[in-house]
Structure of RDD family protein:
Amino acid sequence: MSTEPPQYPPPDDDPFKKQPPQQPPQPPQGGGSPYDTPPPGGGSPYGTPPPPYGGDPYGGGAGGLGGPDPLAGMPPLADSGKRVLARIIDMILVGVVVWLLTWLFGTSEYDIDPDKVNTGRSFGQSLLAALLYIAYDTYLISRTGQTLGKKWLGMRVANLNDGATPTVSTALARAAVLWLPFAFCCACIWTAICGGWSFFDKPYKQGLHDKAAKTVVVSA
């Protein structure tokens, strides 16, 4: 009889037994991640792709970033050519008054020193012109939004944000930007630049004085 101990086969759960390598899961037919559930209709599982470059992801509108258009509900913007004609009418009307007042207060007793008189008259006339033009614009624009020239040609000044008639402070700021340089330094050049800006400005056809006061000119 043998004295050797009996031999038993090793158990199947032997931790030292070499296990075969596991294979990674295979993706389903047609490609894509095995962890994604395709949405109904065959769309991308990651949602709608972003808009192409140059598109506006916030929506259109003149207000920008999807904001409301300030001109919504207002009459159409006034034609820039008609605005120039209305301004010429106003300049003639007030200019006649300035000339009459200058002539009325220009006395001959100051002719003793022509150089000083000419300088004084020039400054006095410029100051008078500035005051009258600013007062004319401020008073009429703050009341109805219309100077006489604008009224005759069917247009008015309105606040850009709500279309209301400008307040006295808004009308004063608008008039000062327009008429102070006109009266004291560069009448023709400044008028052409300030008013002519509306021919090129987009989208509100604003002159420089409109931009300063945040106003627009619309059809009445």
